[in-house]
Amino acid sequence: MTKIINLTPHEIKIVGEGNKIIQSFPPSGRVARVETKQRLVGSFPVPTWKTEFGKVVDLPEPEKDTIYIVSLLVLQAVPERAIRVDDCTVKGDLVAPNTTPSGVVRNEKGEIIGVRGFQTL
User: Fold this and answer.
1) Model confidence band, residue 1 (pLDDT cutoffs 50, 70, 90)
2) Are 48 and 40 in contact (CB under 8 A)?
3) CB contact at 8 A, 25 and 4
4) Three-state SS string across the chain, please?
5) Which residue in 1, 19, 29, 70 could disulfide with 74, CB within 3.0 to 4.6 Å?
6) d(C-alpha 121, C-alpha 112), whole Å
7) Furthest CA-CA distance within the chain
8) Using one digit for the tens of pLDDT, what is the confidence trace for 38-80?
9) pTM of the prediction?
10) Distance (Å, whole) CA 113 – CA 14
11) In percent, how much of the chain has pLDDT > 70?
């Protein structure tokens, strides 16, 4: 059986028909992140910063029968680990919540209540 471990700081709720939550993944307590550095590039007329991305931290090594939920930024930083299907075989171990406009589900106040599923690259 495949384990799914949430490496984001947020509970990930999967929403089905009728906007009912069908599955939930609580944070594991470990958060995979991409290191960042910012440097001031000018004021136009307010301070403007450039973000430079570094290495991924707190991402476990691949583990058999385990999928990790990470942020899209982490997924993009290690594309070789993104889940994909080749010749009917699943490869990779990372997915991100589908936070695209069509993937996010909001309540009547516009607050996010969940996502329709995951995304890969």
Assistant:
1) confident
2) yes
3) yes
4) CCEEEECCCCCEEEECHHHCEEEEECECCCCCEEEEEEEEEEECCCEEEEEEEEEEECCCCCCCCEEEECCHHHHHHCHHHECEEECCEEECCEEEECCCCCCEEECCCCCEEEECCEECC
5) 70
6) 23
7) 55
8) 999 999 889 999 999 999 999 999 999 999 999 999 999 999 9
9) 0.88
10) 9
11) 100
Q: Which of 12, 42, 41 is nearest to 24 (CA)?
A: 12
Is residue 89 scored above 80 in pLDDT?
Answer: no
- Asked if the model's pLDDT at residue 88 lies above 80, the reply is no
97 touches 115 (CB < 8 A): yes
- State how far the Cα of 79 lies from the Cα of 30, in Å rounded to an integer: 20
